[in-house]
Amino acid sequence: MRDALDDIRKAGAELVVVGSGRPEHAREFRDAQRLRFPLLVDPELASFRAAGLRRGVLSTIGPRALGHALRALRSGARQGATRGDPWQLGGALVIRPPGEIAWRHVSREAGDHPPLDELLRALRRGGRGKNGLVRAT
Amino acid sequence: MDARELGRIQVLDPDGREVRLGDLWRERPVALVFIRHFG
């Protein structure tokens, strides 16, 4: 995500990350990682719901999630201690003023991360294209 | 698909101050990424 920050800013946009959990979690993570973009938290998960994201035990730990986890482990990724709601899944939106959702990725299971190339294409595009479709089951 | 409902929601910044989501995309586009957990 950090590598995509320059591309996002070159496209005239900003990257904002929203997590679950408490402000102190965000503060500690931001300081430890020296993040250069806004990090926000939504302890009630209201924004996750309004964004149409998913939540559920089976989505988080089902067979597809296991596939993602194995691939991540093979590439050397390791997950640290988890804070926030472990069953809430993530996603990403590209939103233009005054509030058009130009692109959305709804994670179907843990490890299903938003494809950054699609996100960047949506940011660079003026209007809506075929990638304006929602990816969800 | 519009973000009106999403825009009305208040979240918190790392200092615990309220941020209205809609303010984030008032002036320019935003890539809004929701993550499951930090780290």
Structure description:
The complex is a heterodimer of chains A (137) and B (39). With 137 residues, chain A is of the alpha/beta class. In chain A, 36% of the residues lie in helices and 18% in strands. Chain A has one domain (4-135). Chain A has helices at residues 4-10, 23-33, 46-50, 57-61, 63-74, 116-124, and strands spanning 14-19, 39-41, 91-96, 100-106, 134-135. Chain B is mainly beta and 39 residues long. Chain B has one domain (1-39). Chain B has one helix at 4-7; strands at residues 10-12, 18-20, 30-34. In chain B, strand 1 (10-12) and strand 2 form a beta hairpin. The longest helix of chain B is centred in the N-terminal third of the chain and has 4 residues, at 4-7. Chains A and B meet through strand 1, helix 2, strand 2, helix 3 and strand 3 of A and helix 1 and strand 3 of B.
Structural class of chain B: mainly beta
Give start-end ranges of low-pLDDT stretches of chain A.
Answer: 127-132
* Number of helices, counting only DSSP H or I runs of 4 residues or more of chain A: 6
Structural class of chain A: alpha/beta
**Main pleated sheet of chain B:** 2 strands, antiparallel
- Figure out the total of helices of chain B: 1
Shape descriptor of chain B: globular
Overall pLDDT score of chain A: 84
| Helix-strand sequence of chain A | HEHEHHHEEHE
Main sheet: strands, sense, barrel of chain A? 3 strands, mixed
Entry summary:
Chain A has six helices and five strands, in the order αβαβαααββαβ.
Main attributes of the structure:
heterodimer, A: two-stranded parallel ribbon, 6 helices, 36% helix, B: 39 residues, two-stranded antiparallel sheet, 1 helix
Write the layout of secondary structure elements.
The complex is a heterodimer of chains A (137) and B (39).
Chain A (H helix, E strand, L loop, with lengths): L3 H7 L3 E6 L3 H11 L5 E3 L4 H5 L6 H5 L1 H12 L16 E6 L3 E7 L9 H9 L9 E2 L2
Chain B lengths: L3 H4 L2 E3 L5 E3 L9 E5 L5
Antiparallel strand pairs in B: 1-2
